[in-house]
Amino acid sequence: MWTITDSPVGPLRIVEHDGAITAIEFEPFRTTGRPLGERGDDHPVLTGAVAQLTAYFARDLKEFDLPLLPQGSPWQQQVWEQLRLIGYGETASYGQIAARLGRSNAASRAVGLANGQNPIPIVVPCHRVIGSNGTLIGYAGGLERKRLLLDLEQEALF
């Protein structure tokens, strides 16, 4: 099942399967790939996700508590788990994430590739990953959205 909600970064399509969120997509939405099923605006998991995203964008929620089931390789799963450990308003570099996984800085590119395949952005905060020199690089939703999400979190802290 799926639903669409408005947000400051544009419409978001939230996809649920077997009681867990499997994807959050930025517009333009995919037309092929993962199965969507029927639209289910009243599905409890989807209404919960909409409520938490709404609270996040209102700066009232700093940590999501949703059932998640991202589909990916074991390496991607490891990287996505590390993303969830980056706190609200904080950032980490690709190299730092590689180091947290016990890998050398050479694994930064592999971290970046896994980061770019994150199917549940915002909730699994891939926007909090930056270049080693502090620059904003790479974001599947576009750098403008990444900047907006980081700015929203920074403003909420002060």
List keywords for this structure.
Arc Repressor Mutant, subunit A; 5 strands; 2 domains; alpha+beta; three-stranded antiparallel sheet; about 160 residues
The ordered H/E elements are EEEHHEHHEH
Distance between the termini: 37 Å
What's the β-strand tally?
A: 5
The CATH class designation of the largest domain is: Mainly Alpha
Poorly predicted parts:
none
In angstroms, what is the radius of gyration?
Answer: 15 Å
Q: What is the name of the CATH topology of the largest domain?
A: Arc Repressor Mutant, subunit A
Architecture of the largest domain in CATH? Orthogonal Bundle
The major beta sheet can be summarized as: 3 strands, antiparallel
**Beta-strand percentage?**
5-15%
Share of residues in helices: 25-40%
Number of helices: 5
Overall pLDDT score: 92
Gross morphology: globular
Structural class, from helix and strand content?
alpha+beta
Spatial strand sequence of the major β-sheet = 1-2-3
What is the count of structural domains? 2
The CATH superfamily of the largest domain is known as Winged helix-like DNA-binding domain superfamily/Winged helix DNA-binding domain
Q: How would you portray this structure in words?
A:
Helix 3 (94-100) crosses helix 4. Helix content is 35%, strand content 13%. Strand 1 (2-5) and strand 2 form a beta hairpin. By secondary structure, it is an alpha+beta fold. It has two domains: 2-57, no CATH class; 74-157, Arc Repressor Mutant, subunit A (Orthogonal Bundle).
